Structures are given as C-alpha cells and as structure tokens.
Amino acid sequence: MANSSKQRRARKIAPESLSSDESQPVINKATWLPNWPSWRSLFGATTTPVAVILAIALIASVPMFLHSYPITHSTHFNLSWAFQYQRQFFSGQFYPRWLEFSNFGFGNATFAFYPPICMAATLPFRALGLSLSGSLIASMVLAIFTLGMGMYLYGRLYFPKWIAVCVAGLGAIAPYFLADIYMRGALGEVWAIVFIPWILWATQRVIDRPKPLRVVTLAIAYGMLVLSHLPTLLIFTMVWWPFPLLVKNRRLGKGFKHYLTTIKACYLGFGLAIAWTSFFLVPVIMGQKQIQLQMLTFIHEYQAQYRLMLDGVLTLQPHFTEHWFDSKLIPMWLVVLVTLGLGYVYWFNHRFKHLALDRQDRQDRQSEDTTGLLQTFDRPADRDRLIKLKQAVLVWLIMGTIAMLMTTDALGWIYQLVPTLNRIQFTFRWFSIPSIVYPLLWGYLLFRVQRWFNAISVQIQIPETIEPLKKAAIAGVLISLIGFVWLSWDIVSNTQARANDIQQFEQLAAQKQFPNEPPSFETEGKKFIYWHWIFPDGLALVDVPEYRAQGVNFPMPPDRDYDLLEWADGSSNGLDVKRWDFGIREFVVNLAADANSEPGLDPELERDFDPDLPGQRLLLRNFYFPGWRVEIDGKYVPARLGDRGRLAINMPVGKHRVVVRYLGTLSNWLGYLISFGSGIGILLWLKPWRKQVWCDAPPESNAIP
Predict the structure, then answer these.
(1) How far are the Cα atoms of 300, 304, 327, 405 from residue 411, in angstroms, in the given order?
(2) 497, 63 in Cβ contact below 8 A?
(3) What is the pLDDT of residue 464?
C-alpha cells in the first residue's frame, strides 16, 4: 500500500518525466532544448503574460484615450447602435432586435440580422458608469486583450512561453486589426478576428484529445464567431474546414478509426456552435427574403468581384487596385506575401531536412556527449511537439495562401460562381485570416532561429546549406517585423479624431426621449457625422437600408412630420395613445361608421382593406416588419405593409383597444427552440461523460517550457 501511494505521488509530481519507454533516462524538464530563455528570467512571475498582453492592449488604445472614439467609416453607426442598444437593454429589453430611434423614430430591424456581440460587449462598461464613447473604447480594449490572450494560449501549444507572448503581442497590433478599429470602425469584424485564435486553440485541443468538454469549448468559441460577424464567419469557415483533416496527431498511427473519431469530434463542435446560436442564425437564414439585402451589393463598389486587391494575374499583367481605400492596404498585402514566402521556405526545409547532422552522425555525437543535452532533441514527447508544429504551420500557410489568392483574380472568379460570396463586399476582408496567421508564422520563424542558436550552443555543426537559410530567416524576420510595426504605427498615428462631435452626439442622444422626434419638416437641419441629422429641437438618427423590410421606401428625412397614429387620409380623429414604449404600443381606436362605410357590414369583413374606405386603414409611425404582432381586443390580426412601408392595421368600425408588440417572426421562435434544446442536450451530455475520452490515447505531452 505504501509503495502504491509513493508511485501515485511520483506520477503526480513529475508526469513529464515518464515516457513510453521505461528504460529511457529521465531528463529534467528544465534541460529540454538547452539555453531557451528562462520564462521567469525574462518576464518574472507566471501571471506576467496576462499583464504584458494587457499592457499591449492599453498601449494600442492610447489614441482613443487621448482623443476620444475615432471618426471612422462606421462611427455614425457605432454611436447610434450603441446608444440605442444600451438604452433599450437597460429599459428591460434583453435582446433588442428592433432599434426604436432609427430612421427618425420609424425604427429598423438592425439586430434581427446583425450579430449582437459588438454591442453586447459595451453593456458591462456602460453599467459601470462609463459614457457612450467610453463604453465603446473600453470594449475595444477588451477586444485587443481577448485577442492577445487567444493568440498566447494557441501559441503555447507549439512554442515556448516567451515566443507565445511575442506572438500574442504581434497579433494584438496586427495592421488590419488596428485598421478595423481606427479606420473602418468595423466593430463586428474586430470581434470576429478576436475569436479566430480561440477557435484554432480549441480545435487543436480536440485533435490532441477529443474529450466532450473540449468539443463544447470549440462549440462556444465558434459560436462567438457566429455572433460577431457573418462575412468573417463565411470566410473563416471556408479555410477552417480542412484544418482537422490536415493536422495529424499521434493517434493517426494507431489506425484510421481513431483519425475519423478525432475529425468527427471537431465537426461536431462546429455543429453544436450552429445549434446553440440558432436563436440568431435561423431568423437570418429564413428571413433574408423579407428584407432588402440587395442593398448590400446594389452597385459594383460593394461587390467583392470588383474590389480585388491585385488584378491581371491570370493574364500575366498584374496591377494593384487604385481604389481610394483599398490602395492604402497594398503595403499590408506585401508584408503578408513576404511572410508567407518565408514560411514556405522554412517549412519545406523543416519538412525535408534535419537541423543538425544526419541520424548516424547524431548518434555518434550522442555517444560522446557527457551532459545528456543532445539526447533531449530526440525525446518522443519533443518529437511529437515538433511534428504537431510542422502540421500546424502547413495549415497556417494554406489558410494564408487561400486568403491572399481570394484578393486576386487568381481565385476571384469564385465570386461569380458563388454569388453569396459577393456579400462580403470587399476582398480585403480576407485579411482577417492573415491577421492571425502571420504572427503565428513569425513565431515559427523565431522558433527555428532559436533552435539554430541552441544547436550552436551545444556545438552541433550546422551544415553549410543551412547557414544561408539561417541568415535569411533572421533578416526576413527583422525586415517583416519592421514593416509590420511601421504599418501599425502609421494606422494608429493617422487616426482621425473629432472629440467635439463625439461629445455633441452623446449630449444630444442623452436628451432624446422616446417616442419624441424633432420636427424635421420646414425646419432647417444639417447632416451630422455622415448620416444623422441635427435640428433645432434635437438629434435624428438614420440607419442602414438593407435591414428594412421589402416595400419600405420611405424618404429620409421624412417629407413631413408624422403623428404616432393617423388614418390613411391623414386625419387622427378617434385615436388615443395610451402607451408607446420600447417594443410595445397600446392605443384606443374609436372608428365611427360614416358615409363611406356600408351600414351593417360585418366588422370582421371590414378588416380586409378596401381602398374605397379610406377611414379603415390605420397607419403607425413605425416601419413595417413581420416581427410586429397586432392584437385587437385580445385577438391577433395580421400587420400589413402600408403607405411606403409604414406598419398598417385594418380597423373595424367601433371602439377597440389595440396592442402592437414586437414578438419576432416564427423563425425567431424556431431559433429559440433549437438553441434551448441544444443547450439542454449539451448539459445532459457533459454531466455523465465529462471525463470520457472517445478513443484510447496516451496522455498529452506537456507544453514547451
């Protein structure tokens, strides 16, 4: 019994010292790959990576701290959406799909189709007392930090801690990521990029050991991408699907059955992600025909096939884009190209050549070695890690290559074959993939350079054919890093800031009281931050047209001032508003029989609109959308599309109490049902099998120190 306890304690204390070969000498963890910089000597305590990444996030956010939230391509939407989302959330709407203040108070179904993460991320900071712009800035700091932590955790699967920290830092200041924050203001895409390394990390962990809890972790990470940005979801899914197929592991050598089990576990995680986010995805997929999605690509300017970064490749007459914005991203495109080129060179060298002498010479040197250091290069666990790294690098290179080719006419013809891809609008959105890939490739190059120095430190002679590659690697890393940092600095330093406009928007937005809107007819107004309007009596907000229902073609600003309720002829007799609040309208209608109404006509029949009876149709200052439900005296009747897109109700003669609520479409409720069912299923699945591994496998090797 005593011996058994000692053995268990020994296994618990030093699992890394065990190997499949009991006769193999135990090598201390600290001596593996000699002369690696000590983590504590470089960064101090083990909690320091979090502090380092947080510091990088704060430094990258300094322009926002100094000059307020920047003026970007989407600042007008970000401010308007954040203001409305926060106001409606803290007024009791847990998931405000319909934005009430948009379009001069007529509303917009923005978050019935746009993912909510970008706005939900601002809520905790607003609850803590930050201002509107302060909550947006804080959410960007959180995004940068979360991206850095994801890059660090993923990098730790392959690299030493200090390289993983470097990878995290480079990822947090990736030029395209910063361009999304400081130039484009694409908050949804920012959060989508944030979750990509978390998905890669979760996928690799499932591949290493397909436990149910890890599958659920992958489902959560992928689900967060679903709730962040749909174009990036489409782009990333196209390059993620081969990932589980290409990243081999030790179980592949135990049989094809184990390989299939691992692959199925990864794709199960993807399926669970789609299932638990169905509350958002199902309405988006089923409701596309209900809205004006054609507005996304109504001109060539917003079609990906006409926004290529490099054209003429297939005709051997390449030329870069001359678009006013896309041309600014050409240096970024070139840096990615150089990084991919270096990655391919050293991956092929890693694949087909050994770092030191051939196997026989290495064995001869090991027989003369008295320190045991050279043996560490041949430990099974270390070889497994190197094999895993080699396969991961191949996947990174493939991902980056596909992304780059999709910005050129080499693969640009795919946009014509798959029209859905045109909805990404701009091919530079593919840079979201290299934003994650090239920091990882630089980490790989640093890893190779460090191994060469380790070989020198233990007096392993490097072949002459390797020496030029080593020098080129060092030069390439330095040059590309300089270009990388210069691009990031250029983006941040050229940030446009108009703090007075941001402050004015906050003040005017805070004064808005729903459902009151400033009079806009026959009063002089001026455009404000691109789309919005300022009038003497306040601020009016305008929203994107693609999320309006089909048939809504109302002018903005409106052609006159509209009452909350009015008859089709413009009168308002017999209308009494009792309540007009977020997501609900209550009013009493007293429609008297008149000369235009046939005496004794069944009120039920009068509910069908008759253009000869102008007093029957009631119009609300509210855009039509199928998610609105109308209840007359406790009975549901259909909401109708009225004049130029206003929500209309066909009223029967008499006095009636009417309640109009935003309850969502049938697809909303179907999505809720699927999400709820999948959530319950996941919990029931995890409880009895939380320790299950689906195939026999040896314990994972520890991360590189």
Answers:
(1) 18, 12, 19, 6
(2) yes
(3) 54
Contact between 338 and 330 under an 8 Å Cβ cutoff? The reply is no
User: What pTM was estimated for this model as a whole?
Assistant: 0.87
Residues in the chain, overall count: 705
What secondary structure does DSSP assign to 308-362, as a single string? -SEE-TTTT--EE---TTGGGGHHHHHHHHHHHHHHHHHHHHHHHS-SSS-HHHH
Strands (E), 397-514: none
Q: Is 343 exposed, middle or buried (0-12, 13-18, 19+ CB in 10 A)?
A: buried
C-alpha dihedral, 163 to 169 to 172 to 174, nearest 10°:
-80
DSSP one-letter code for 468: H
End-to-end alpha-carbon separation of the chain, Å? 34
Q: Helix, strand or coil for residue 473?
A: helix
Show the beta-strand stretches assigned E in 601-703.
617-623, 628-632, 635-637, 640-641, 646-650, 654-662
Per the structure block, which two tokens stand in for 657? 């109490």
* Cα–Cα distance measured from residue 472 to residue 479, given in angstroms and rounded to the nearest whole number: 10
Cis bond before residue 515 (omega within 30° of 0): yes
- Residue 484's alpha-carbon distances to 37, 343, 478, in angstroms, are 24, 16, 10
Average the pLDDT over each of 1-5, 281-285, 429-433, 674-678 and give the range with the smallest value.
1-5
Q: Percent of the chain scored above 70 by pLDDT?
A: 79
Q: How far is CA 149 from CA 102, 119, 303, 556, 648, in A?
A: 36, 21, 34, 44, 51
Q: What are the φ and ψ backbone dihedral angles of 174, each rounded to 5 degrees? A: -60, 135
Residue 297 and residue 449: Cα distance in Å, rounded?
47
Ramachandran region, residue 316 (left: φ > 0; alpha: ψ -120 to 50; beta: rest): left
Helix residue ranges per DSSP H, 512-546: none
